[in-house]
Amino acid sequence: MSIVIRPSIESDAALLSSWIIKPDVLRWFPMSDQREIDDSVRIWMGYTRFGASFTAEYDGKQAGMAVLYIQPYQKFSHQCLFAIIVSEEFRNLGIGEALIEHVVLVVRVQFNIEVHHLEVYEGNPAIHLYERLGFKEYGRHPRFIKDTGKYIGKILMQKEINHGRT
Amino acid sequence: MEDLDIRYTFVTDGSYLRQWLYQPDVLKWLPVSTEKEIDDAIQCWMGYCRYSCSLTATLHNVPCGIGTLFLMPYRKVAHQAIFKVVVDPKWQKKGIGEALIRNLKHLAKNYFRLDLIGIEIFEGNPILSLLKKQGFQEIYRQENYIKDGLKSLSRIYMEVEL
Fold this sequence. Notes:
The complex is a heterodimer of chains A (166) and B (162). With 166 residues, chain A is an alpha+beta fold.
């Protein structure tokens, strides 16, 4: 059983969309219907042209993806937000961890990023993985999501990238 | 200011916004720094005019400030919006920013039925005291978010419930 991480290609978009639409995945994203998912997938896939989207394959099958939202402005170019998704059928196989470790390596070597950050909703079990990989909470936005009348908070986490290490 | 008027923004107001953004004392509080970045930002900003969520302050019918609600595109986050406001440097500290923010709050609450509006500012931005006066509270702060030359600054997210 092997995990291979490669740059995403345009044809990964359909799978990405099919993973997000699953209710247990969609609840952790700001989108809520196919139109919104299509819009977010279009934005995500737009980063492939910068080499900033990655696809994990498990035994040759697409199993997860990660994207670095590379900043367009010079004043922000030392930091970067990222997002990650793992297909429900490939959970608990180390794919999320492998994707994050790959992304951390890429931001250090390829994009010269110093601060790597993410946003996750309260209650998302992925928070434990982020903590284990060195991301620390720096803030909360308590009423970021409103879903069927209920507010859900957004937790903001970041990791400083040590450029001195190889 | 008796001659101050607030109206919806026209796309053509973008030329005034461009002039203001080129002033160093305005530019230092914004994420943009190059001509291309300024042009891209103005194009995106003026794109919101079509949703009637942008207001222009005028003095003698000449634009002197613009404030815009950046409405969220997804339903789960559509109860809130981030806004931006810029006042012509030669008319700052005369209540124009305050009038724009007050009117944006009214527009957000009564027309768009938003629960919250927020603004992201850089550490040290003098607009902070005005925001506090208008009821905004700091929600979170991220250190070293902006790098301007050798200087690193925090971003501060301020929010008000409508």
